[in-house]
Design brief:
The protein is of the alpha/beta class. The protein has helices at about 5-15, 100-115, 175-180, 205, 225-230, 240-250, 255-265, 275-280, 290-300, and strands at about 60, 70-75, 85-95, 130-135, 140, 155-160, 165, 170.
Length: about 300
């Protein structure tokens, strides 16, 4: 798994890995300095972003009568200004004119207040996983996270922690998807179907996949895992291991031995120390910790 990163990005990561005194760093930043020459990754300062106290709040331009105002502090960093430190920008919105979810607030900020704010979103229904971010200290999906109605509570929104940042709330998930690709997340078998049609399985075998196939690869669980923070080049992380178990548990797959052999090393699987941040934070209510335990059990008693 250590070969998943390119030599250039691996070097950059090793040269700026924060010391213990810098654990509070929210995230790293990556930027293509010259898109023509493909110059590698750049990193933001390995320290907390500049506090919102040092930035001018941006207020809702269209407050109605009797506004119900709430303040959102949003992480900002732009690759167009790579030497500037990340900062927290404050926005004040009238909740009477804003939808109920945090994603509604971000969309309104972008459409009506500050068009430079950048974030990912797509389905708005908790299916695509695009809007994964850290909201009030919890990794979740912005489209499923309701805005606290207590206006005295100021919400804080960051990109997924311990990731490279492309811009603002957009994390670089290149490594995450390379790891997902490495487990060969598709049905593998050599025996053809008896009647040339689909490969069938019993209802009881199909039920074993419940709680596994629903994963949307939002990376909320992996980026909440301390083991993944410090070993992300080799440890596969909760999301990818849950997906790996999805195929190990599938009665139709015939390459279980090869799948287990790929995990049979010190790093890919066994860096999990059952901290269970992954199971607590999953916005889909899945249990990656249990899936990892099932993999360990199947390898121990194989």
């Amino acid at each position: 798994m250590s070969a998943l990163r390119t030599p250039t990005s691996r070097l950059l990561l090793s040269t700026v890995r924060p010391a213990h005194s810098s654990i509070a760093a929210r995230s790293y930043a990556t930027v293509e300095l010259n898109p023509i020459r493909k110059v590698g990754e750049a990193m933001s300062a390995t320290q907390p972003p500049v506090s919102e106290k040092h930035s001018t709040p941006i207020n809702d331009p269209s407050k109605g009568e009797n506004p119900k105002t709430k303040t959102f502090h949003v992480y900002r960093w732009s690759p167009e200004r790579p030497t500037e430190k990340p900062k927290m920008q404050s926005y004040t919105l009238d909740l009477n004119k804003t939808g109920p979810m945090v994603l509604d607030a971000l969309i309104r900020i972008k459409n009506e207040v500050d068009p430079t704010l950048t974030f990912r979103r797509s389905c708005r229904e908790g299916i695509c996983g695009s809007c994964a971010m850290n909201i009030d200290g919890v990794n979740t999906l912005a489209c499923l996270c309701r805005i606290p109605t207590d206006t005295t509570h100021q919400s804080r929104i960051y990109p997924l922690p311990h990731t490279y940042v492309v811009k603002d709330l957009v994390p670089d998930l290149t490594q995450f998807y390379k790891q997902y690709k490495s487990i060969k997340p598709y049905l593998q078998r050599t025996t053809p179907s008896p009647d040339g049609r689909e490969h069938r399985q019993s209802p009881s075998d199909r039920k074993k996949l419940d709680g596994l196939y629903e994963c949307i690869l939002c990376a909320c669980c992996s980026t909440s895992c301390p083991s993944y923070w410090w070993n992300s080049e080799q440890y596969l992380g909760p999301a990818v291991l849950l997906q790996s178990y999805r195929w190990l548990a599938d009665s139709r797959d015939e390459f279980k031995g090869e799948r287990k052999a790929m995990l049979d090393n010190n790093m890919s699987l066994y860096r999990c120390h059952t901290i269970l941040n992954c199971s607590r934070t999953c916005p889909k209510g899945l249990n990656p910790g249990k899936a990892i335990a099932e993999i360990k059990k199947s390898m121990a008693f194989a």
